[in-house]
C-alpha cells in the first residue's frame, strides 16, 4: 500500500507541475512598455549635487569595497574606471581579506589593499565608500567597516544590489532609497523602515546614496564627478566615454518579472547541452568599463559565458592601473567564439554593441533578457 501511494503521489506531482507552471506563466504580466521619463527638475538635480559634495578633502578619497569570494563585476569596475579616468579623486579598490577578488559573473582582480591596510593608512576614513552587490549582504567585516566609515563622515554609495548590503547595516532605515528591481520586494519586506523612491535611478538622503540596476553605475559615477569637480569636468568625461546625459530619470514600472523574461530564462536554461564559452582577450591598457560590460552581458544570457584569456597567467594591467587575472591561459581563441576587442569604441557604447551581438547570436528575446537583468532600458537613451 505504501509504495503504491508513493508512486501515485509522484505521478500526481509530475502531472501537476507543468499545469501549475503554466498557470504561473499565464498570470505574469506581458512584456514591459518603456516610456521616456520626464527630465529631472534643476532644483532636484542641484540638491543631489549638494548632498554629494566632498565631506572632507579638497581631493577626495574614494574607496570601493568588495568581498574576496564574490562581488558583482560591473558594480566594482565601472565606478573605478570612470572615476579614475576623471582624475578628480584618489580611487582605491579594497577587499575584506588578502588576495584577489573574484567577481560575478566573470573576472578576477587584484585590489589595491585590504580594509585593514586602508584603515592603517587612512585612520580618518574615506570621503566616499562605494558598495557593490556581493554574494552575502551581511558579511560581518563589511558591515562593521561600512558603519565605521559612515560614522567618520564618509558618503556611502550603494550601487545596484549593493543597496541590500547598505540596508543590512541599518544606514537606510528612515532614509529615501532605491535598488535593483529584482530585489526590491525582499529589500522592502526585510527593511520596512526604508522609504522607497520610484522612477529615480539615483537617490541621495543624508549621506547615503543608492542606485537602481547595474547600468546606473555610469550616471552615478558622472553625478559624483559633477558634485566633486563641476559640470564642465563631468561633461568632458561624458564625452570621452560617449554618454550624452546622465540625470536621475528612470522608468521603474518598466522593470519587472514578465512572461517573456521567465520564458527566456526557462528556454535558455533547458538548452544546457548547447552552452558556449566566448573568449575575451585580456590586453594591457584595456578599458575597465568596456571590459566589465562586455564580459558581464555575455555571461548573463543563460546560453553563454565569457572568459578572459591571455598568453600567460600573469595579471594584466588595465587602462587605469587595475590588475586583472586571465581566467584561461591561451595564445588565441577560435574565431567563431571570439568576442570583439574592447576599447575600439567609447565605453558607453560597449553595452549596446554587446546586446546587438547577443541578439544576432540568440535572438532579441535573449538580448532583452540580459538588458532587463542590467536594468537597462534598451531602445531609448536611458543609461
Give an account of the 3D structure.
The structure is a single chain. The chain is of the alpha/beta class and 383 residues long. β11 (202-205) and β12 (208-211) form a beta hairpin. The protein has helices at residues 2-27, 42-51, 73-86, 115-121, 140-151, 162-168, 184-190, 217-229, 231-241, 259-270, 288-298, 350-362, 364-373, and strands at 61-66, 71-72, 90-95, 101-104, 108-110, 113-114, 128-131, 155-158, 176-177, 195-196, 202-205, 208-211, 276-281, 304-310, 316-317, 323-324, 328-329. The strands form four sheets. The protein has a seven-stranded mixed β-sheet with strand order 6-3-1-7-8-12-11, sandwiched between helices. A five-stranded mixed β-sheet has the order 2-4-5-16-15.
Question: What tags apply to this protein structure?
Answer:
single chain, five-stranded mixed β-sheet, 17 strands, alpha/beta, 13 helices, globular, seven-stranded mixed β-sheet
Strand order of the largest sheet: 6-3-1-7-8-12-11
Tell the overall outline.
globular
Main beta-sheet annotation: 7 strands, mixed
Low-confidence segments: 1-17
Kindly provide the radius of gyration, computed on alpha-carbon positions and rounded to a whole number of angstroms.
22 Å
Number of helices: 13
User: Secondary-structure element sequence?
Assistant: HHEEHEEEEHEHEHEHEEEHHHEHEEEEHH
Average pLDDT rating:
90
Percent of residues in beta strands? 15-25%
Q: Determine the fraction of residues in helical runs and give it as a percent range.
A: 25-40%
Strand-pairing-aware structural class: alpha/beta
Euclidean distance between termini CA atoms = 62 Å
Q: What is the number of beta strands?
A: 17
Amino acid at each position: 500500500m505504501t509504495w503504491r501511494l508513493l508512486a501515485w503521489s509522484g505521478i500526481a506531482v509530475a502531472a501537476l507541475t507543468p499545469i501549475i507552471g503554466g498557470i504561473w506563466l499565464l498570470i505574469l504580466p506581458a512584456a514591459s512598455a518603456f516610456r521616456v521619463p520626464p527630465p529631472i527638475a534643476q532644483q532636484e538635480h542641484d540638491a543631489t549635487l549638494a548632498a554629494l559634495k566632498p565631506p572632507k578633502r579638497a581631493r577626495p578619497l574614494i574607496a570601493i569595497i568588495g568581498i574576496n569570494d564574490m562581488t558583482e563585476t560591473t558594480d566594482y569596475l565601472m565606478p573605478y574606471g570612470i572615476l579614475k579616468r576623471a582624475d578628480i579623486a584618489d580611487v582605491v579598490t579594497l577587499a575584506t581579506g588578502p588576495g584577489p577578488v573574484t567577481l560575478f559573473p566573470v573576472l578576477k582582480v587584484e585590489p589595491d589593499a585590504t580594509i585593514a591596510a586602508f584603515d592603517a593608512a587612512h585612520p580618518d576614513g574615506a570621503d566616499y565608500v562605494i558598495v557593490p552587490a556581493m554574494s552575502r549582504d551581511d558579511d560581518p567585516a563589511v558591515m562593521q567597516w561600512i558603519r565605521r566609515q559612515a560614522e567618520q563622515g564618509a558618503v556611502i554609495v550603494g550601487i545596484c544590489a549593493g543597496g541590500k548590503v547598505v540596508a543590512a547595516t541599518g544606514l537606510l532605515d528612515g532614509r529615501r532609497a532605491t535598488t535593483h528591481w529584482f530585489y526590491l520586494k525582499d529589500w522592502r519586506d526585510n527593511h520596512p523602515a526604508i522609504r522607497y523612491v520610484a522612477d529615480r535611478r539615483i537617490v541621495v538622503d543624508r549621506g547615503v546614496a543608492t542606485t537602481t540596476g547595474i547600468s546606473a553605475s555610469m550616471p552615478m559615477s558622472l553625478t559624483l564627478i559633477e558634485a566633486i569637480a563641476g559640470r564642465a569636468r563631468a561633461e568632458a568625461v561624458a564625452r570621452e566615454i560617449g554618454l550624452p546625459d546622465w540625470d536621475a530619470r528612470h522608468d521603474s514600472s518598466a522593470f519587472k518579472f514578465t512572461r517573456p523574461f521567465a520564458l527566456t530564462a526557462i528556454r535558455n536554461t533547458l538548452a544546457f547541452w548547447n552552452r558556449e564559452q566566448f573568449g575575451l582577450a585580456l590586453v594591457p591598457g584595456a578599458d575597465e568599463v568596456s571590459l566589465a560590460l562586455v564580459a558581464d552581458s555575455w555571461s548573463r544570457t543563460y546560453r553563454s559565458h565569457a572568459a578572459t584569456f591571455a598568453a600567460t597567467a600573469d595579471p594584466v594591467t588595465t587602462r587605469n592601473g587595475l590588475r586583472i587575472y586571465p581566467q584561461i591561459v591561451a595564445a588565441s581563441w577560435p574565431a567563431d567564439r571570439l568576442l570583439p576587442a574592447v576599447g575600439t569604441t567609447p565605453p558607453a557604447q560597449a553595452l549596446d554593441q554587446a546586446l546587438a551581438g547577443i541578439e544576432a547570436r540568440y535572438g532579441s528575446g535573449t538580448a532583452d533578457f540580459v538588458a532587463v537583468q542590467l536594468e537597462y532600458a534598451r531602445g531609448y537613451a536611458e543609461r
